[in-house]
Amino acid sequence: MSFQALFYPRGVAVTGSVTAGKLGHVLMNRLIEGGFTNIYAVNPKAQGMGPIPGFASIREIDGAVDLVVIASPAATVKDVLTDAGEAGVKAAVVITSGFSEAGNAAGEEEVKQAARRFGIRFIGPNCAGLVNTHSSLLATLEARPPKGNTALVSQSGAVGGALMSWAEEQGLGISKFVSYGNGSDLNEIELLRYFKDDAETSVIALYVENVKNGREFMQVLKEVTRIKPVVVIKSGRTNTGQRAALSHTGSMAGSDAVYDAALRECGALRVETLEDMFDLCKGFSFLPPVEGRRLVVVTNSGGPGVMSIDKADEIGLDAGEPSSELKKALQEFLPPHAGLKNPIDLTVEGTGEGYRRSLAESLKEYDAAVALYIGTPYLEAMPVAQGIVDAARESQKPVVSVLQVGCDVAESDNLLKQHHLPNFSTGERAVRVISRMAEYQGLKSRPGYFSDLPPIKGNLPGQGPVLEPDAMALLKENGIPVPPYRFAGDRHQAVEACQSLGYPVVMKVVSPQILHKSDFGGVVLNIADDEGAGKAFDHLRQIALDRDFRGVVIYPMLKGGREVILGLTRDVQFGPVVAFGLGGIYTEVLKDIVLRVAPVDRTGAEEMIRSIRTYPILKGTRGQEPADLDALAETIVNFSRLPFLYPDIAEADLNPVFVFPQGVFVGDVRLLRK
């Protein structure tokens, strides 16, 4: 009922001054401009504005009022909502600023309580309003967009305003626009839920600066992207104030990297710029789904065609040569000097009919096409535009255009818009749209929900820092493979432990005050005999004399495996996050780390492994045996469950983890409790 009142109100009351230049005056003019009729002005003097009647209170209005748009001073907002609630109003848009964004959190809480008392749902405060082109509702300070099927949800009014300003020029229709500002009540989560089922919306553009409940946001986003695409700009990419991964990986991933991982995991498409968001929304708004990654470029100019193919190769599209059958079909109507290798170059002699037939034939074996026409000022582009329209209709596959120059290029662009075919300024931009649309189809087909959360086992053993022998026992208990090991508290026990494991061995100091053992010389490698074992124990005891020495832990020397790193931490928004990457020198030099919100299922673990740039090293190169990727994936799954089994885990670091052709072993572990 509240969303019905918000987007399809029977009547709208606007509170604020009707004086020219004031927000109330602007908002009432915008409502009139949009074609909405049942508008009422509410202010202490009961002043109207033109055809809009004025009232001192919403309760005095005779007609039905479902929505109040508040542009009066911050100190009045609570009372306005009380007045609205007593009049039966169910929705509000709080344009007024001066609340939590200005340090007035208490005032914002009063507003929330007043709205909650009467069951009023609202957007804002500190927002730019909303638009519903399907109900002629223009309750915003921003530009009026054309009617269409793209919903725009923005924490920032200015960002939404910029996109709507371009919409008319670029031919992108908007279904609804919501600027939710501080998000004190309705925010991105509830708005996404609404637009998931909104029949007037087929693609959602979302601009966010922060998310208050990361896990709920992810769950809703996964549900939405199974039905319609969501294109996201998340600002603050360079903010590394909230670390997202642990000691070794923390320097490589900040909170933005966790957002990146979360959005991708949910099937959303993150873009960096408003131009990219606009381009992609045009693609989804106009085109049929891109069901594969095979792309053909048809052009009348070699250079731009080759540049488009280069971009396609760079971003992972398949722009391979046509089959011999397709080449033969093209040769039947193209001139002998036409290029047939992809790009298909019609040369300057390319005609509208040439474009039509080339595109139609090519799309019998390619999944999508880019049509480039680089004309001259004295030639007509309209025949080419018509050929593109006809080919798209015939093939029912995605066709995007780049029409540049021509005596009638504006008219040609309008023809494409009328037939819902997007036209871009460069081939590279067109190719990026096809690539991201194909990416969405792949993401959409993945499993859409979190792994089941395991039941809590309890807290970590002991008090304070978790000692390595206890940590290794915990890993083993939870299905994470560890090598044979022994703990020794004195010299004699240490030598006996080395004998039982078999030389060569590695010996490490055990002390709650030495977490990074190698920094203190707390690791002795390649111990070959009893004498070396005794000396190693003496050395480790000596370096930890004043650091609460507890003993040593001993392992067989592990050789021949490839080293990876696994880490866990808790993100402020999203909770437990798992990090994976190649270990050893690659960790610090290449910073090749991939993140995923925990827990991770088997499919997610396999995707993590394939996602790192150095995956070929694990897969095996130059005759090397491949690493045991099945065992590694299972280790990632079990590791990602630890913070749910033991809620007091703050961070975990497995570095290195040795992956052999057969099996996996953890080489070192660090667990920190909250």
Automatic annotation (TrEMBL):
SMART domains xref list: CoA_binding
Keyword vocabulary terms for this entry: ATP-binding, Ligase, Nucleotide-binding
PROSITE patterns the record matches: ATP_GRASP
InterPro entries named in the record: Acyl-CoA_Synth/Transferase, ATP-grasp, ATP_grasp_subdomain_1, CoA-bd, Ligase_CoA_dom, NAD(P)-bd_dom_sf, Succ_CoA_lig_flav_dom, Succinyl-CoA_synth-like
SUPFAM superfamilies associated with the record: Glutathione synthetase ATP-binding domain-like, NAD(P)-binding Rossmann-fold domains, Succinyl-CoA synthetase domains
Location of the ATP-grasp domain: 472-508
Gene3D superfamilies referenced in this protein's UniProt entry, alphabetically: ATP-grasp fold, A domain, ATP-grasp fold, B domain, NAD(P)-binding Rossmann-like Domain, Succinyl-CoA synthetase domains
Pfam families xref list: ATP-grasp_5 (PF13549), CoA_binding_2 (PF13380), Ligase_CoA_2 (PF19045), Succ_CoA_lig (PF13607)
GO-annotated molecular function: acetate-CoA ligase (ADP-forming) activity; ATP binding; metal ion binding
UniProt-listed PANTHER family: 3-HYDROXYPROPIONATE--COA LIGASE [ADP-FORMING], ACETATE--COA LIGASE [ADP-FORMING]
The protein, known as: ATP-grasp domain-containing protein
Originating organism: Formimonas warabiya
